[in-house]
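Chapter review: from sequence to fold.
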Amino acid sequence: MGIRSRSCVITGMGVINAIADGIPEFAASLRAGKSGIGFLNHPPEHVPVRIGAEIKDWKYIEALNSIHGLSDELRQRTKKSSLRSPFPVQVSVYSALQAWRMAELETKPAEPERIGLVIAGSNLSQHYIYRQNERFRESPEYLPPSYALHFMDTDHLGTISEILNIQGEGFTVGGASASGNIGLIKGAQLVQYGLVDVCLVVGAVADLSPMEWQGFHAIGAMGGKRFANDPSLSCRPFDRQHEGFIYGQGSACLVLESSESAARRGVRSVAEYLGGGIVLDANRLSDPTEKGEAKAMNIALQQSGIEPKDIDYISAHGTSSPLGDDTEIMAIRQVFREYTPQIWINSTKSLTGHCIYAAGMTEAVATVIQMQEGFVHPNLNLEQPIDDECRFVGKRSMDTELNVAMSNSFGFGGINSSIVLKKGERTEWQ
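The token string follows.
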């Protein structure tokens, strides 16, 4: 068995991305195989990238008012604390409020000192900083005083904790594209070791400036060239015509809680977090390794007390990059060996694009939804699989029972992570 001292369950979830605003819409979009990838409404200046999965036509106040079941007092406090916040902070607040409501933390509260908060992601305000830099170069004296707070990642932490009166442990974690999983693992440890009873983990949106767009493009990490005239075909995880990741905007939040706290508050758990693994490759570059990815999966299994044969489904990292996809499949085959052909495999990025810092969180939410509703979502554009023995989901969703699932996230700089989740009590999304 693993190192768990207390069981850790999931009692709330929130999400926003290119195909969904909220859990019910995300569930419907996953089952339908809806793609959010298209031509960018606001392509980055000076950069030859025109394809992505944006959160389009989103208005913060309308979004806040759409969350049912929040008190007027909480709504007013939210507006007072975040109305002038940068876009990434507002999106984080929005996904956190969704999860807070699902977990019934306003009507069935936990002690503020026993609630923790983890923000997953780093360099979260790059586009905001880029825009302010232009103003600063013209008129330094007109730089807003609030910039001193807004440029730091901890702005997410402070704003959400103020709105929700969170007074337990809190911090930000960065792990490139593995940030979401790392945030979940660290948040779960706070719960398992008894440091908090409840912990919100928020995967923050990556609001890229033109400089980040150019950097990803220059390193050859981005796709969208071969299918430049048909964006819906551009993200192709595990297909032989894959050529790079497609950027996606998104944020997601999970409420982690000890099973004792959930029982005490009288709330349902939609899933149980069993364990996770984080491993470094001792590599500063963007190339992944089979050894590191396999080790992260093995550690997640060991901490969970789960055998390879018990995994029903893998939510793969699956970015649609040739080296990344090939390496992940080799690592999966190394870990699961003869059981590989019986495990469903898909990549949510084929629908949402690569949400970068929030990718692991978004995919954890998608995993819980699929376990709850008994299906696996499609792998869009999978026409010529890179492996003939893996059980990739096809172009349509498939009904199937999922009890235990693994979700992988790997990041530049040799950061490997994997988590294991177990199906919880049946819940109707609201």
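Two observations follow directly from the output. Residues 118 and 330 are 32 Å apart (CA to CA). The longest strand covers residues 8-17.
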